[in-house]
Amino acid sequence: xSARAMTTVYVPGDASAVSVGADAVAAALARExxxxxxxxxxxxxxxxxxxxxxxxVEVVTASGRVx
Amino acid sequence: MTADSAAIHRCVTAAVARMSNExxxxxxxxxxxxxxxxxxxxxxxxxxxxxxxxxxxxVHGVVSFYHHFRERPAGQHTIQLCRAEACQAMxxxxxxxxxxxxxQIGFGxxxxxxxxxxxxxxxxxxxxxxxxxxxxxxxxxxxDSEALADCVKSWGVPx
Lengths: 67, 159
What we know:
- The complex is a heterodimer.
- By secondary structure, chain A is an alpha+beta fold.
- Helix content of chain A is 28%, strand content 22%.
- Chain A has a 4-stranded mixed sheet, covered by helices on one side.
- In chain A, strand 3 and strand 4 form a beta hairpin.
- Chain B is an alpha+beta fold.
- In chain B, strands 2-3-1-4-5 form a 5-stranded mixed sheet, with helices on one face.
- In chain B, helix 1 runs antiparallel to helix 2 (26-37), helix 3 packs across helix 4 (56-65) and helix 6 runs parallel beside helix 7.
- Chains A and B meet through helix 1 of A and loops of B.
């Protein structure tokens, strides 16, 4: 298996995001990445303020953060 | 569970000793007492008043002003449903009706089996994800009757 580069994923950890399931999303991400042996760094940041889209996950890519 | 006099005395004395030197210690003491005993029993009021050199009326006034403080312990589980404008605009009224029907109690009441207390609160600051509720201290957004029903069912409340 080829080695994957570490991916950084942002999952908001503020009250509003958590109120609509951000903790479960972060936990599922961590669990599935571990199962697939994908190196991932999950950062619990503040919300972007787009609360109607929460839980809003951003992935760091070569062209910037993509939601 | 109702605390006995000795427990109330012990709890108030400890809270006062910890906080009486802080500026404006009354709210802190009330929070501490409720955190430990699950409520602020009427018996605690004169004890706190005396310790802080306040009148009973002043302490009672604060306890009864803030709906957060209760004189009797809540049920095993607490649902604090937001009844403010944004949540009403997002079908909060229907959710409130559902909660009352499902639990067979009104706002401010505890079920006879002691399982659930239902309370109305006014804005949890989560308007963008309305309707909101605080369920056992945990903020929940975009709550609907299905999610509420699941929650109540998991507590073993008979339908």
